[in-house]
Amino acid sequence: MRRTVIAGNWKMYKTIEESIELINGLKPLTSNLKPNVDVIVCPPFTSLAIASSLLKDSSIKLGAQNMSEHDEGAYTGEVSWKMLKSAGCEYVILGHSERRQYFGETNELINLKAKKGLANGLKPIICVGEKLEEREAGVTEQIVSAQIKGVLSGISSDDMKKVIIAYEPVWAIGTGKTATPLQAQQVHMHIRKLVGQLYSWNVAEGLVIQYGGSVKPDNAAELLAQDDIDGALVGGACLKADSFSSIIGSAPAR
Predict the structure, then answer these.
(1) Is 188 one of the catalytic residues?
(2) What is the pLDDT of residues 210-219, one digit of tens each?
(3) Most buried of 11, 15, 182, 196 (most Cβ within 10 A)?
(4) What's CA 103's distance to the chain center, in Å?
(5) CB 125 within 8 A of CB 63
(6) What does the pLDDT look like over 6-54, one tens digit per residue?
């Protein structure tokens, strides 16, 4: 049975002091997780080291929000897998729609980053999703299929055991709009079927697919109850300990 994975993407929020406050507020609220639930927090780079230290005595795992495709070098402002591992990260978000939209990241670049992370012990949370005009044009499945094929190119079946896919309809990120549970389930099911075709049904059945896009305490339970939705990549609602813990508590016992 697949695990339920709830990840909080802090984006460009929280100073070091604010990060300490949030983690210290979150730890007691997540001290009794359901046995099938994993929780990940993804603070900004500046807070990773202190977050790692604070989380050592908890069940919460640590992830980063992005990573360079390079090991090291003259790449001003970039952060490598070595740096993330040194800071205590186990996961890294790759290909978030904001990285695609504002920084021009392509499926090919995201694929390079994913393979670099996997080769060096980081588990990627790889994001895919369609824009509003693509949803309205009825080409959601075509767009998501192209993204899946691009970002997973050359990744082995064994490495797929370490990959998480996050389906994030771009039109629902930070807008307050949310795909209905049925809309989300349909795309998640499509992704699982496609991965089954690209790899095998065993790989597809084991793949954790999260939903991301204005997940909140009042809609989390219905989304997480869907057969092919295995967790959530949470944005704004993860910035407060009580709302994030409420979403975590919505995860069904599987």
Answers:
(1) no
(2) 999 889 999 9
(3) 11
(4) 18
(5) yes
(6) 999 999 999 999 999 999 999 999 999 999 999 999 999 999 999 999 9
Cα dihedral 213, 97, 184, 203 sign: negative
pLDDT of residue 143 exceeding 90: yes
Q: What angle do CA 6, 12, 18 make, to 5 degrees?
A: 80
CA distance 227 to 185: 7
Active-site position among 98, 130, 134, 168: 168
Q: What is the pTM of this model?
A: 0.96
Write the DSSP symbol of residue 128.
Answer: E
Is residue 168 part of the annotated active site? The answer reads yes
Q: Contact 60/248 with Cβ under 8 angstroms?
A: no
CA dist 145 and 195 (Å) reads 9
The 10s digit of each residue's pLDDT in 67-96 is 999 999 999 999 999 999 999 999 999 999
124, 118 Cβ separation under 8 angstroms: yes
Quick check: 22 and 55 in contact, CB under 8 A? no
Which of the following is catalytic: 69, 96, 134, 188? 96
> In terms of residues, how long is the chain?
254
- Residue listed under structure tokens 């059945």: 205
Angle, helices 140-151 vs 107-119, to 10°: value is 40
Domains plus CATH for the chain? 4-249 (3.20.20.70)
41 near 14, Cβ under 8 Å?
Answer: no
